[in-house]
Amino acid sequence: MDQTVVTEPDPDRVPRGRLSLVVPTYNERANIAPLIAAVARVLDGLDWEIIVVDDDSPDRTFEEVRRIAATDPRVRCLRRVGRRGLSSAVIEGALSASGDAIAVMDADFQHDERILAAMYDKLCDSRADVVVATRYDGKGGVGDWNAGRQAMSRLATWVSRMVIGGRTSDPMSGFFMFRRDLLDEIVYDLSAQGYKILLDMLASARRPLRVEEVPFVFRRRAEGESKISAMVIAEYATLLVEKLSRGFVPGRFVLFCMVGSLGILVHMLALWASRAAGVAFEEGQIMATFVAMLFNFGLNNEVTYRRWRLSGPAIYGGVVAFCLVCSIGALANVSVAELAIAELGSWPLAGLSGALIGGVINFAIADNVVWQVGRRRGRARGQQSSAAPAAVDTSRGESPAL
Fold first, then answer.
1. pLDDT > 90 in the chain, percent
2. Fewer CB within 10 Å, N side or C side of the chain?
3. How many domains does the chain divide into?
4. CA 395 – CA 56 distance, rounded (Å)
5. CA–CA separation, 91 vs 106, rounded Å?
């Protein structure tokens, strides 16, 4: 007698359903229509959607997405106003996705969209949490990169392994696919800072993740300019520090200290200039201190707190508050240093102790006082967006990200 064998579904495998593709953009108007067309070709026969998360591009990329979405319900756009950043854009796009499998890729054609189906098959047919498109294994490659860029990428990859170990050959890849339940599991632990969201995800998981790989060759940009910059490198460094310290040292604190170090240089240059101009030391020191404070405020406003940057009349209040904060930090610096020199008798240790305590106090107060106005404005924008659902079409066209 024939017996029918009933195979139970494997709960560790992703059910074949909708694939959501998240594409963060900034000034990618010329690329977005060709990319969507290319994705449609390679994913023919699959249930898919594409969510373009645009950081209010000056070239109005969001308008091009809205034009396409008017005739294709699989296309959506989240237009973010007042904030930027690839990692946070990916997180917001992924949270709005409807698929059980979520892919992340760039809009500039450097990521090979032709392997999306292979990545999806591997995620669904294995027990993987993440499938990484790798440049450093199998038939993968970095294309026509020069020796300097290759060396920088290899170094960044090597350093990142101090945080995540050898889970993948390409932790710096911006092209990967993951299970929705993984996002739900780690979303509150993500830094959402910088450009290396895969590294952030792998480092934030509280259990060993199952990672599979699909090789690909990195291609040249189709249109536009590369966005790599000193700021990208700095944010990568702060992400590593935050993850290595398990969140004990916030990334913003690292940036705040970096800005403060540059402020010391500015102070010394201003003091030298005042001396060259014949100004007395006391007056020169006061001028140099004020110049350094203005420099630190401006750079922190544009870099460390750019998500909540102050603008318009709020800048004046911010400058005054920041100078008061720095004065409190300076007083704490001197007090702790005097106590340390009396107890330890070491000038270097006393100076370091004072600088450290002063820096921590400056950061703590500035973080919770000076830039609170920017945070309140961000929350107000979010509340306004959620309070007016009639103005939001989440199925097609553009919708403000929450």
1. 28
2. N
3. 2
4. 19
5. 14
Through-space distance between the first and last CA atoms of the chain, rounded to whole angstroms: 59
Round to whole Å and give the CA distance between 235 and 366.
Answer: 20
CATH code at position 77: 3.90.550.10
Q: Where are the alpha helices (DSSP H) in 277-368?
A: 281-299, 314-344, 347-365
Residues 262 and 333 in one domain: yes
Q: Indicate if 81 and 42 belong to the same structural domain.
A: yes
Residue 241 lies inside a defined structural domain of this protein: no
Please give the distance of CA 207 from its chain centroid, rounded to a whole number. Answer: 22
Q: Identify whether residues 280 and 370 lie together within a single domain.
A: yes
Q: Could you list the residue range(s) of the whole structural domain that residue 61 is in?
A: 18-227
Average pLDDT value over all residues in the chain:
78
Does residue 264 sit in the same domain as residue 219? no
- Asked if the model's pLDDT at residue 80 lies above 50, the reply is yes
pLDDT at position 387: 36
Tokens of 34: 């060709």
**Residue 243 · residue 204 · CB < 8 Å:** yes
pLDDT at 2 over 60: no
- Residue identified by tokens 């004020």 is 290
Establish if 235 belongs to a structural domain.
no
How far, in Å, are 57, 82, 192, 252, 268 from residue 307 at the CA level? 15, 7, 11, 11, 30
Q: How confident is the model at residue 222 (pLDDT cuts 50, 70, 90)?
A: low
Work out the pLDDT band at 376, boundaries 50, 70, 90.
low
Task: Encode 245-275: b = buried (16+ Cβ within 10 Å), e = exposed.
Answer: eeeeebbbbbbbbbbbeebeebbeebbeebe
Do 161 and 293 belong together in one domain?
no
* 10-30 tens-digit pLDDT: 656 666 678 999 999 999 999
Is 239 within the bounds of a domain?
A: no
Residue 88 corresponds to which tokens in the numbers above?
């946070």
Task: For residues 65-82, give the mean pLDDT.
Answer: 92
User: Given a cut of 80, is residue 213 above it in pLDDT?
Assistant: yes
Last residue of a domain, one of 178, 193, 227: 227
Question: pLDDT at position 18, please?
Answer: 86
Distance CA 160, CA 164 (A): 7
